[in-house]
Amino acid sequence: MQTLTVGLSERSYPIHIGTGLLANMELLTAHLPGKRVAIVTNTTVAPLYLEKLQQTLQEMGVHSMPIVLPDGEVYKTADTLNTIYDALLTHRCERSTPLIALGGGVIGDMTGFAAATYLRGVPFIQIPTTLLSQVDSSVGGKTGINHPLGKNMIGAFYQPRLVLADISTLDTLPDNELSAGLAEVIKYGLIRDLPFLEWLEQNMDKLLARDTEALQYAVLRSCQHKAEVVAADERESGERALLNLGHTFGHAIESGMGYGNWLHGEAVAAGTVMAADLSQRMGWISAQDVARIRTLFQRANLPVVAPDLGVEKYLDYMGHDKKVEGGKMRFVLLKQVGQAVLKGDVPSALLQQTLEACV
Description:
Rossmann fold; Dehydroquinate synthase-like, alpha domain; 7-stranded mixed beta sheet; 13 helices; globular
């Protein structure tokens, strides 16, 4: 096991990364203020890992109340959030009752938002079971739900007390979900770590084959970057926005196609290729760089061509992006491979060319 710390003064918390962590009582003990917890999970993860986690808690003398939600991005809504509140209120959960998110990014985001708002804030623990949630969404305190007009537009910054990334849970992950997680892993190399990008190019086959050592290294390196960025810019006023490479286009794809029809990582992959294309049109990276990026996503079994929603629809959805400032869209682009920048004055003609060329 390897441990990182997200440095946020009195709200700092550990990220434990390793195998077999769900059965490690000591990792959870220090973060449970009482003898009662609520576990939020979904219909896919519950049959795989809920009983194991409950047994671990029971051995500690902790009673656990499961809240099992339907699985899928389409359920990341206010109605599903109310299902969590209903259960917490029905069972009279108190401010000392932690919520444990056992699942992927959707479960983590919704559980975190419920924790931030139930009784104005209760303890929150992340146990991510997908690669995407282990390397990205479980770390940093972004929580929320989707709205028909935009992804993650309703939410709160609310940090967990602990992140427990058990690499063993990736053994049961479907292939397309593993690939979706790799999109976020590749992102870290593109925005701030060229040597890591080169390592990914050399080790992509191992990652797809679920080599434990390779996966643990990829999760560790990704979390190191996420922890550093969050510690420096918790509320995304500056550097943290760079973590959204490909997300302005990607969120438009998810919204336009209907939530759940494209996995988040799939949309980010196609969106990152679009961002790379726009970066080339800005004169910053070469056609060879764009081809290199496209090839790596293809090797990860990810889409590199975006769906044709029409230019106007893309512009409309991107106009709801959280990075919009003063009514103007801002894009995370690549000044060079391994270095991202936030750009707010992209010529509309170049953006239109990218939208027309990449779909």
